[in-house]
Design brief:
Blueprint (H helix, E strand, L loop, with lengths): L10 E10 L2 E8 L5 E8 H6 L3 H12 L9 E6 L3 E7 L4 E2 H8 L4 H16 L12 E3 L5 E3 L10 H8 L8 H4 L7 H16 L9 H10 L10 H10 L10 H4 L3 H6 L2 H14 L1
Helix pairs in contact: 4-7, 7-9
This protein binds the ligand Cc1cc(Nc2nc(/C=C/c3ccccc3)nc3cc(N4CCN(C)CC4)ccc23)n[nH]1.
Length: 278
């Protein structure tokens, strides 16, 4: 936590983990302590051309003072004449959406952890605005880590990006109607994401984007018969067309399903138990 100024020479760079919008993310290790990190390397020239310096500055400001087990830590940053380096927490489980493709459904406890993260963000008046499996990493014991704050806070470009990337599944009705949105958008996305993690596909999934939009507008919610009553109850209270009817986070984290599933300890215990049965 000291304000030491790091340099790239303090780290051994491992294999690239992925390519973000403005540069690569590598696994890295701090030489002295052998502490694993994820190094997000951004090129200054690219940022300048796309006027993204503000965006990156905001990502750094927001994420560096967020400290929560379900929010990916930004430990610090440094730069040299060509690059900016973000020192991010290393999540050994990889990307959630890849894991969902492999394992189809997750443990209810892991999905519940996200509500705690969201509640924490809103208590710090941060709106994530882009909650979907692509922006979530899997930490130790399967604990989910909300990442990628490049689109949070006031940035209005989020919705353009979401539609650009074609993942309509997470768009709430107010965005489809071009109305304004506020932090209640995160509640809608939490409902969609919880549904997708428990059931294995998004609630308004369909072959055509047109049909998805129709389903979002009409909020046709169908649950498999195996879905537990309490998670149905929670999801139905989050996926309300009218944002003010959505269950506020303070009630979400007291919901029977969350209380039963959310605490980190039970996630760790379940995870270790599950690992031993595999
Ligand atoms: C910031 C960060 C990443 C991270 N960990 C990981 N990120 C990414 C993919 C990252 C990425 C980054 C930018 C764009 C696209 C993907 N992939 C990962 C893949 C991992 N493995 C090990 C576990 N295997 C099951 C899957 C492959 C482990 C950690 C990963 N911790 N902290």
């Amino acid at each position: 936590e000291t304000s030491t100024s790091w340099s790239i020479n303090d780290f051994e760079i491992g294999q690239p983990l992925g390519k973000g919008r403005f540069g690569y993310v590598y696994c890295g290790r701090e030489k002295r302590t052998r502490f694993l990190v994820a190094l997000k390397i951004l090129f200054k020239t690219q940022l300048k051309n796309s006027k993204m310096e503000q965006q990156v500055k905001r990502e750094i400001e927001i994420q560096s003072n967020l400290k929560h087990p379900n929010v990916l830590r930004l430990y610090g940053f440094f730069h040299d004449d060509q690059r900016i380096y973000l020192l991010l927490e290393y999540a050994p489980g990889g990307e959630l959406y890849r894991r969902m493709q492999k394992e189809k459904v997750l443990m209810e406890s892991e999905a519940a952890g996200l509500c705690n993260a969201l509640n924490y963000l809103h208590s710090k008046s941060v709106i994530h605005r882009d909650i979907k499996p692509e922006n979530i990493l899997v930490g130790k014991y399967g604990i989910l880590k909300l990442a990628d704050f490049g689109w949070s806070a006031e940035s209005t470009t989020a919705c353009k990006r979401t539609t650009l990337c074609g993942t309509l599944d997470y768009l709430p009705p107010e965005m489809l109607d071009g109305r304004g949105y506020d932090e209640k958008i995160d509640l809608w996305c939490l409902g969609v994401l919880t549904y997708e993690m428990i059931i294995g596909k998004p609630p308004f999934d369909s072959q055509s984007q047109h049909e998805t939009i129709r389903l979002i507008r009409s909020i046709e919610l169908n649950f498999p018969i195996t879905t537990s009553h309490d998670v149905r109850d929670l999801i139905s209270k989050l996926l309300c067309r009218n944002p003010i009817e959505r269950l506020p986070l303070k009630d979400v984290i007291q919901h029977s399903w969350i209380v039963k599933n959310a605490d980190i300890k039970s996630i760790e215990e379940n995870y270790i138990k599950r690992k031993s049965t595999l």
